[in-house]
Write a structure and sequence with these properties.
Elements: H1 2-17, E1 20-27, E2 30-38, H2 47-100
Antiparallel strand pairs: 1-2
Length: 108
């Protein structure tokens, strides 16, 4: 009997070290010793992985969209400035030519 007690005390020590739980099932007047049970850690729901991934993807998409819009607006502004500069240069040439009278043959 003492050997059994020693055996079980050693098993209980082992169970404590390995996180095993001794389980006994009682159903009415009946008792059943199931033994030691090891609980598995709960599985992480898939939503906890998918949610942040989708959120990061949407954030990246929004940032790319903002950059694309900014570049488009900047390109349009540069084009307008270039056209205005060309127009101003053309006006200056026409004004200079009018002043010099190169292309005008005015006879009185």
């Amino acid at each position: 009997m003492e050997d059994n007690l020693n055996y079980f005390s050693n098993i209980f020590k082992l169970a404590i070290l390995t996180t095993l739980v001794y389980t006994q099932v009682t159903h009415g007047n009946l008792k059943f010793d199931v033994g030691f049970v090891k609980y598995l850690p709960p599985e992480t729901p898939l939503v906890l992985f998918i949610g942040p991934a989708v959120g990061a993807f949407l954030l990246l998409l929004i940032i790319i969209l903002i950059i694309a819009i900014y570049r488009h607006i900047g390109e349009r502004d540069r084009r307008i400035k270039r056209l205005e500069k060309q127009r101003d240069e053309m006006e200056m040439r026409v004004a200079q030519e009018c002043k010099d009278g190169k292309y005008f043959n005015i006879t009185i």
